[in-house]
Design a protein that fits this description.
This protein is α+β, with helices and mostly antiparallel strands and 231 residues long. The chain contains 5 helices and 10 strands; from the N terminus they run αβααββββαββαβββ.
């Protein structure tokens, strides 16, 4: 597999669209999920907390509580560590569900945004490609370029940055894929008169240029043999 194939987003033709509002002929192009780097901080925090509790329970407590039997101290320390491990595992599990529950679903007609704020708070909204005005991909910092992730925004004329996807893998490639889907949508529904602007690593507003009107055909007067513009 060459490097160009690795930099392209993978397509997912079979995706569970939570809104289940599909127009006749509409097809799913891809599903955008978050980059796994966002979970590293949660795993690191849970591991750090467990390490501190283990040191307190099995090293500090036996050294401080010298008047208590060491076996008893270690037993209670083990119980505290077990409870902390269960709580950390539960917190990590919930964070995993919430983090990976956020996604975008791109179809040939719309973008569906699935936002999961907590274990029991999940929202879905849809943006028609006809209302798409601007696509912005942002990568700020060294880590975003090293691991190729960032922020992607889909904006409309009425409300800016309503559709924002954090920790997006390959943001530039996905932004271009959304742009291509928008161009195909315009060609099918409106003859490709307008195209949105794709702005990598910036927040500039989109600009449009309507397609020029076709020139009027010429008509030749048979009496004068001079071409005149047909009204």
């Amino acid at each position: 597999m060459n490097s160009q194939d690795q930099n392209q987003p993978t397509e997912a033709p079979v995706v569970n669209n939570p809104l289940a509002v599909m127009e006749p002929g509409e097809r799913i192009i891809c599903e955008i999920k978050r980059h796994p780097i966002g979970m590293l901080g949660i795993y690191a925090m849970a591991g750090f907390v467990l390490l501190i509790i283990a040191i307190l329970a099995f090293v500090v407590a036996p050294a401080v509580l010298t008047n208590t039997d060491k076996t008893t101290v270690m037993r209670y320390g083990g119980i505290v560590f077990l409870v902390a491990a269960l709580l950390a595992a539960g917190f990590t599990f919930v964070s995993h569900i919430v983090y990976w529950g956020n996604r975008w679903i791109l179809t040939s007609d719309s973008i569906t945004q699935v936002t999961q704020n907590s274990l029991f708070d999940k929202r879905s909204s849809q943006l028609s490609l006809a209302h798409l005005e601007d696509i912005t991909a942002e990568q700020n910092g060294i880590l975003t370029h090293m691991f190729n992730y960032g922020v992607i925004r889909a904006e409309t004329a009425g409300e800016r940055s309503k559709f924002t996807f954090l920790f997006c893998p390959m943001p530039n490639a996905y932004a271009q894929q959304i742009l291509r889907a928008r161009e195909e949508f315009e060609q099918v529904h409106h003859g490709g008169k307008q195209q949105p602007t794709y702005v990598p690593q910036s927040t500039q507003a989109a600009s449009y240029q309507a397609a020029p009107a076709p020139a009027s055909p010429e008509y030749t007067d048979p009496t004068t043999q001079q071409p005149t513009e047909q009204q």
